Amino acid sequence: MGEREGAITRKGDEEGHEFARSLFLEFGLPLGLLPLQNVIEGGFVESTGYFWIVQESRTEHRFEKIGMVARYEKEISGYVSLRKVRKLKGVKAKKVLVWYPLSEITVDDGRPEIIRFKAVIASVPFPVDAFAAGQ
Predict the structure, then answer these.
(1) Residue 3 falls inside a structural domain
(2) Which SUPFAM superfamilies did the record assign (predicted)?
């Protein structure tokens, strides 16, 4: 049984963006967390929480409010649950001159205005509103 078995999939840029927005809304994650471009496909397996999004090419986005640059590979995947993405693949954050792969993103339960990015070296908190759509 593969990770994508039983998945709901969406093809194309418009449907892919709508898929990502609705998935993040459903699980209480900021809509601007994944500023996608030219989406080819998106998919979600409801029974496991596994999701993936494929873009035409790797992209970078600067979150001005916190001065962080994020890199999004052609394929992004992970497992989503309420206010959390775990086993994240395809997303890196740049701190000083080094790119760190992110493995988990969590909106704090007790402080929903805080979102934490977990990388190999540390977990770093940021204000959730830095990842609002259009930022």
Answers:
(1) no
(2) At5g01610-like (SSF141562)
